[in-house]
Amino acid sequence: MLKYVDVHSHILHRFDDGPEHLETSLKILEEQYRQHVETVIVTPHFKDFEHTDIDSFIERRARRVAEIKAAAKEQGIQIPDIRMGAEVFMACNLSEVEGIEKLAIEGTRYILIEMPYTAWNDWMFDSLYALMAQTNLIPIIAHIERYGSVDRKKIEKLASMDVYFQINADSLSERGYKQVAFKMIRQNLIQFIGSDVHNLASRPAKLEEGYRILTKKISGEFAHYLNVNGHLLLDDQYVEKYSGSYHMMAPKKLFSRLFG
Fold this sequence. Notes:
Blueprint: E1 4-9, H1 22-34, E2 37-42, E3 45-46, H2 54-75, E4 81-84, E5 87-89, E6 110-114, H3 122-135, E7 138-141, H4 152-160, E8 164-168, H5 178-186, E9 192-194, H6 207-217, H7 220-234, H8 255-259
Parallel strand pairs: 1-2, 2-4, 3-5, 5-6, 6-7, 7-8, 8-9
C-alpha cells in the first residue's frame, strides 16, 4: 500500500485559521490516516514578524502537537506521524530574521513560503535569493497555482531560481484552479503536492484523491515522482526537478516507507 507525505497542512487547533477544537484536529488526522498519509507536516501560518516571537510560536506549536498526540493515544486513534513546520509569509530581508531557520520543516533545510496574492515586486526575489545564499535554506513556494493575479513572467523568474513549487491537491478538482494547476504540471514546474487542509467541510484533506487524479490525467510516473519527493524532503535530500523522463524506481532506502 502506498504511503504519502502531506507537506502542507493546517490541523493544529486554536492556532491559525485551522480547526477551532482538538476533536476536529483528531478527525482530520484520522481521515488522513485512512487516506494512507504516513506523515503530516504541520505548517501553521507565520506572518507577523514584528509582533510574533519565533520561539514563542514554536513552543505553542509544540504544545498543540503534544495535546493531539496525547488525545489520540488516550482515545486509541491511529494518526499519521507529525513533523513540525510553518507556512512563512514573504517578508523583506527574510535572511536577516533572527531564528528564521527554526521555521524550516523539522530536520530539513526546506522552508514553506507563502507569496503575496497581489503583484510581486523585485525585493521579493532579492529576499528569497538572500535567504538561500545566506542561510542555506531551500524555499518551497506554497500553492503556486493560487497566485492568479501574478504576471506569468514573475512565475517563470521564480522557477529559474533554485526554489520549488507546491500545489494543493484540491486544486486539481476545483474549477477555479485546476486549469492553472494542470498547465503548470505539464510545464514541469511542480515538485510537491500538499492537502493544505484547514477543516472537515470547506477545506478538507484530499491528498489521496489528488494522487488519483494525477495518475489518471497526467501519469502514474508523475504521481510517483511527487510521492518520492515528499519522502526525500523528510530525509533532507535533494529533489530533482521533473524532466518528463523520471524513472519509476525510487531510492532503495525509500521502498519500505513508500510501499510497506
